[in-house]
């Protein structure tokens, strides 16, 4: 194990997401401050190596002594195997990876990204926004049921695995308040293995399922489910492409494969703080009003932006729904304590561990310091994509309709629960 220090974060040798290079470290304390104040982990646990795997320390470390666990060699091994390579790309990656190849922050390189993955050996490339739409379908239904029953409120989102682990470690009494939905990449992974493979008469053992992600915590998350074989961060993919002499910026555009390749505009904004909430509320509106939203819910500015805590109230079919969007788990502590003390009340709370959401996740391009200007450019690029989409609500996505009709059945069905939902663990007393 690494030596314990009270001047920096302490990373165990078996951490699945992050590694520490002591030879580079001058114990400046930046990582400790980020972990303590922004993330709310350092100093709050009796563990020697408390970590929610978010990777915020890797973004902020000026000496690059903290990094994601590099699995590019495993990526190379998989790509040179005789297996069928199936990849999916998270929304936030497309508006950040271009920076690694000299493009300005926020340039959407979705088509070039797909081309790059095909160039290195992907047989199928899917968009994780499809998994985000699945999340919306299940999570909106779950929220409506909780609102109607007035039970297990507030409901917290569960897309961010670092936030989920934070809740398991520090606030297990609120585990019943977490949505039971898996994250979009895990839902997508399950559909690749159990729907895509079935439709194409492919055996699960004959494919390698790889997710291209903006955060380090996905490396931890995929260990929970036997759905995805490898999670590669934006930085790792950029490194691999450069090793292969592939300049992403110069590639032509390609399209995602069909079946699991189409997501709505709401799925795209999952990569920003407030995006999961906004997308889910669009579908809640549809469920309760039997029609699709216009105006405010398609441009829900109150939950957008970089403020650590964003609050709003919205009336849907006579129901007043109080919501909060939080980015930075350090602020979750403050909100949960206020909830416990009866100082505030919310029905629905979105939590992202990273400030700004996935657009500034722990596996994104290492720009020191990462400024609000860069975060806003990435964030606005996703909102711009959403605004351009003809389909902005999950249940309007014809591919979503097809997968429920042909495989999942009804939203919240036994099949949906089996493949799209999960349970949680009390980690408070773990040693």
**Average pLDDT reading:** 95
- Poorly predicted regions are none
| Oligomeric state of this protein | single chain
Distance between the termini: 15 Å
Taken in chain order, the helices and strands follow as EHHEHEHEHEHHEHEHHHEEHEHHH
Describe the structure.
The protein is of the alpha/beta class and 431 residues long. It has a domain at 18-68. The protein has 15 helices and 10 strands. It has a 4-stranded parallel sheet with strand order 4-3-6-7, with helices on both faces.
Task: Give the secondary structure arrangement, pairings included.
Elements (H helix, E strand, L loop, with lengths): L17 E3 L9 H9 L17 H5 L5 E3 L3 H8 L4 E6 L20 H11 L3 E4 L1 H21 L5 E2 L4 H10 L13 H16 L7 E7 L3 H5 L8 E4 H10 L21 H4 L6 H15 L19 E8 L2 E9 L1 H12 L7 E5 L19 H17 L9 H11 L5 H7 L11
Parallel strand pairs: 3-4, 3-6, 5-10, 6-7, 9-10
Antiparallel strand pairs: 1-2, 8-9
Keywords:
431 residues; 4-stranded mixed β-sheet; 12% strand; alpha/beta; 15 helices; 4-stranded parallel β-sheet
In short:
This protein is of the alpha/beta class and 431 residues long. The chain has helices spanning 30-38, 56-60, 72-79, 110-120, 129-149, 161-170, 184-199, 217-221, 234-243, 265-268, 275-289, 329-340, 372-388, 398-408, 414-420; strands spanning 18-20, 66-68, 84-89, 124-127, 155-156, 207-213, 230-233, 309-316, 319-327, 348-352. The longest helix has 21 residues, at 129-149.
């Amino acid at each position: 194990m690494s030596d314990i220090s009270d001047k920096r974060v302490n990373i165990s040798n078996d951490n699945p997401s992050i590694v520490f290079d002591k030879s580079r470290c001058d114990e400046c304390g930046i990582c400790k401050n980020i972990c303590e104040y922004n993330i709310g982990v350092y100093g709050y646990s009796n563990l020697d190596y408390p970590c929610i795997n978010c990777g915020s320390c890797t973004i902020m470390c000026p000496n690059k002594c903290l990094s994601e666990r590099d699995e590019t060699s495993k990526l190379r091994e998989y790509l040179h195997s005789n297996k069928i390579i199936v990849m999916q790309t998270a929304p936030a990656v497309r508006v950040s990876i271009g920076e690694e190849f000299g493009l300005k922050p926020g340039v959407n390189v979705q088509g070039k990204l797909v081309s790059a993955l095909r160039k290195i050996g992907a047989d199928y490339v899917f968009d994780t926004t499809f998994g985000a739409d699945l999340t919306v379908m299940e999570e909106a239904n779950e929220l409506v049921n909780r609102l109607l029953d007035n039970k297990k409120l507030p409901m917290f989102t569960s897309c961010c695995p670092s936030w989920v682990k934070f809740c398991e470690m520090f606030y297990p009494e609120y585990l019943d308040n977490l949505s039971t939905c898996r994250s979009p990449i895990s839902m997508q992974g399950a559909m690749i293995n159990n729907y895509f493979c079935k439709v194409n008469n492919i055996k699960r053992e004959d494919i390698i399922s790889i997710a291209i992600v903006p955060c380090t915590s996905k490396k931890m998350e995929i260990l929970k489910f036997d759905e995805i074989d490898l999670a590669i961060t934006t930085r790792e993919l950029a490194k691999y492409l450069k090793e292969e002499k592939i300049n992403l910026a110069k590639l032509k555009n390609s399209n995602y494969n069909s079946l699991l390749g189409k997501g709505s505009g709401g799925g795209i904004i999952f990569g920003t703080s407030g995006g999961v909430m906004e997308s889910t509320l669009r579908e809640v509106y549809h469920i309760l009003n039997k029609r699709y939203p216009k105006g405010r819910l398609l441009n829900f500015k109150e939950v957008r932006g970089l403020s650590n805590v964003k609050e709003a109230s919205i009336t849907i079919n006579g129901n007043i729904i109080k919501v909060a969007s939080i980015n930075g788990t350090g602020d979750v502590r403050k909100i949960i304590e206020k909830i416990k003390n009866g100082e505030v009340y919310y029905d629905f709370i979105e939590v992202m561990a990273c400030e700004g959401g996935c657009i500034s996740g722990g596996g994104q391009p290492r720009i020191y310091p990462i400024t609000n200007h860069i975060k806003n450019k990435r964030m606005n690029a996703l909102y711009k994509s959403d605004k351009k989409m003809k389909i902005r609500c999950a249940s309007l996505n014809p591919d979503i309709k097809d997968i429920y009709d042909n495989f999942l059945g009804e939203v919240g069905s036994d099949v949906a629960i089996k493949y799209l939902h999960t349970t949680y663990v009390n980690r408070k007393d773990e040693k």
